[in-house]
Amino acid sequence: IVLTGGDDRLWKTWGFPDGNILLTGEGHTDWLSGCCFRPSGTQLVTSSGDTTVRIWDLSRRGCILTLRGHCRAVRGCSWHSCGDFVASASMDGTSKIWDVNSERCRYTLRGHEESVNSIEFLPFSSTALTSSADKTLSLWDVRTVSRL
Where are the WD repeats (predicted)? Predict the structure, then answer.
C-alpha cells in the first residue's frame, strides 16, 4: 500500500501491483503537503496548505482529529516511532510536536529564520531533524525543546 496527497486536497491509498485506489480521504481545504502512516498502520497524518494537521482513522474512513496552531501553510508531517506523537513543519518558521493522546501541542520548536520545510523523528529517539528554507538543518531534543 502506498499513501499519496496532492493539490486536489485528497489523500489516497493505492494497492500494488495493480495501482487501484483503496481509500480516499477528504476534509482539507487546501493542498496536501505531507502524509504518513502511523507506525501501527491503523491511522495516518496529513499536513496542508490550510494550516492544519489532521489525524485519520482508516477503519472509520474519516478525520478523527484536526490540530490547529500554525499560522501559515504546513509543509510536512511525521509520526514518532512510538505512535503517540506527530511532528509538523510550517511556513510560519516553526515546527510543532503534537501529543495525539491529549490532542494538544506539546512543544513549539523555534529557531529557523524562514519556512521549515520538513521534519522527521530519528527512529526510537527523542531527536527530530528539521530542514528550512534558510538553508540549515537542525537537530532538536524534543524533550527539552533545544537544538543539539
Answer: 25-66, 67-108, 109-148
